[in-house]
Input
Amino acid sequence: MDFAAFAALCYELEKTPGRLAKIAAAAEYLKRLDRDEIRPGVAFLSGRPFPVSDPRTLDVGPGALAEAYELPETRNGDKPLTILEAAEDFGKIAEAAGKGSRREKFARLRALIEKTAPAERRILFRILHNELRVGLHDGLILEAIAKASAADLKTTRRAALFLSDLAEVAAIALPGGAAALEHVDIKLFVPLLPMLSELSEDFAEIFKAHGGATALEYKYDGARIQMHKQDGRVRIWSRRLTEVTDSIPEIGALARSEIAGDSFILDGEVVAIGKDGRPFPFQELMRRFRRIHCIEAAAGEIPLRLYLFDCLYLDGVSLIDEPYEQRWAKLAEITKGNHLAERRITGAAAEAQSFLAESLAAGHEGLMAKSPASPYMPGNRGKLWFKIKPAETLDCVIVAADRGSGRRRGWLSNYHLAVADAVGGFAPVGKTFKGLTDKQFGAMTERLSALKTGDDGYTVTVTPEVVVEVAYNEIQKSPQYSSGFALRFARIKRIREDKDPRQASTLAELQALYEKQFTAKSRR
Ligand code: AMP
Output
């Protein structure tokens, strides 16, 4: 297929407001792709030069892009550019890497651009920017793939969870239809979305949902990892499916030496641990995850501990449809009981409460409660897994608000939060747009507008008047705010109509709460 046909589809999608019409147009396009055009054709449709599971990147800097925009609008030759050729040329651009490759990269980019006529070129540039801007998100592409291959949505969605790449889903669905999709299963070295949980504060609700008893595990405040191993090879992905193998080599080594099984996929959490055996705050762990250089030095400085809690695949067999208890039994077997999350199965509220207190006292975040009979459902957030994490709250004053965009346009929706300082002022500690209903956003916008003291077009400053109860997960040191602190995952729990700003939490209280964190957590 010519790239011009793809560009024409993009312009059509841009003009088509309806969801169903967009899906229908995209499905028609997919049906017209030849077999070898499917992967690049779907990647382009999602605004990417390469499919998600293809590790190549273009690495074209903003300078080169700016220069590319200046190229004359005429096309070299009159042979139309095809989708396959565009994909090949993207590959050539990605390949030019290393020292002194910048000119070569630009030459290859230029050669590709010069193969396009103006209408195609505009779309090509959008792919170079990784955004097609035609209102076709991944959910709609998935529906288009289902429609084009006459498969039902459920089967298509399930395959997408296992493959984590719509280009791969399409490559199977379009030629093979629903029957081929049904055979898609969990695969080694293809990360799948982690199973998620719903928040609960009520053990009675949990016991009821889980048929009387639940499997409680410590909820560790670290980073989720998914570990795949076959023979001696190990690869590890983060919760967002970014590969982190090279950032945490000691975890890979552990998987090779301490866990039995020729091949496996395990789910777990890594936590940074201080010399006293207590977990470091989350901020410290992220320094390890982001680190690419001096990994060995960091490994000594910020040691990691692994807590495993699920086994999705073992020695060639998928376990995700097996009940939790059997998956746990397999996990306990291959680890010989080491590196496992602390766990207790109970149907008694008092026992659950005391297990929760134990977890918090050991510096962890709370508990997870898992239905003993549940299968592993990738990407699913529901009542099969609950999380119980008592949040701390502070009463903050709103001192400013940013104007919303998208769905929040017209509202003052991102609130700057502050605590009372010692000299009669307010010290900022973070921002949040979470926690209010649409109706509350509207009312808050009116209220803050009436308190306006300044407006730079984006941020409106207000007289500190409105007090809100803010839940957060951790107090972090932050150079960004003059208070010196930032609340992690701040969200509004309630509007405290009963409080005036002089009764808000103080900076001294915040400092004390920050220090208190270290009675359970380790400090550098
Ligand atoms: P949240 O990020 O607050 O939605 O909570 C879910 C996260 O808790 C998971 O994605 C894991 O990273 C983390 N977690 C910690 N301990 C466990 C555990 N025992 N089971 C499942 N998830 C856990």
